Amino acid sequence: MQLPPKVTNRAFERLAEIIPASSEKGLRVAVEGGGCSGFQYNIELDIKHEDDLILEKEGSKVFIDSTSLPFLTDATIDFSEELIGARFIIDNPNASSSCGCGTSFSV
Hints:
The chain is 9% helix and 46% strand. The protein has 107 residues and is mainly beta.
């Protein structure tokens, strides 16, 4: 059984700060071929596409397309704020290895 990704409260809170709840935009999390480990995450602000899974809380939305969904089964989408910067991060139990950049992984 494939479990959809989870989005932490911290990630939804950050989304609420940068996108008004009334907006059609949300955070798109996609997996694409490439990167130094074979696959890479693409995280951007976007609108809903026809085949998207929508994860929503209090008007904040995360979109995941049907092609990326199997790679993100049971993953956790979070927001991290550190001295060197702030970013959305993905903890993916499906990744067998990842790169130091934090956006590239292999399965």
